[in-house]
Amino acid sequence: DFILLNDVTILITFHIPRTSDLLNCLDETKVISSLDLASACHRCDIKTEDRHNTAFTVKNTKYEFNREALD
Fold it and tell me: How far apart are CA 20 and CA 26, in angstroms?
């Protein structure tokens, strides 16, 4: 019976980043290649209050992402 577990589970939805947000993360870049656009997600910071949504555990150690982790 998972009713109690469902009551404490936080539902999280992840949205695909908008292209304009990705381009804004490139700051003052003069030249942009398709490789830059492919890796732009990794340059966008995650808000401090949202970092707990990215948490995962490995060998009893909790990790949270500080930047987007999309491929």
Answer: 10
Please provide the size of the chain in residues.
Answer: 71
What spatial distance separates the first Cα and last Cα of the chain, rounded to whole Å? 36
- How many C-alpha atoms does 43 have within 13 Å on its Cβ side? 16
Q: With bands split at pLDDT 50, 70 and 90, how would you rate the model's confidence at 50?
A: confident
Is the alpha carbon torsion for 22, 24, 25, 27 positive or negative?
positive
- Give the CA distances from residue 10 to residues 1, 13, 70, in Å, rounded to whole numbers and listed in that order: 18, 10, 21
pLDDT category at 65 given cuts 50, 70, 90 is confident
Tokens of 47: 């808000």
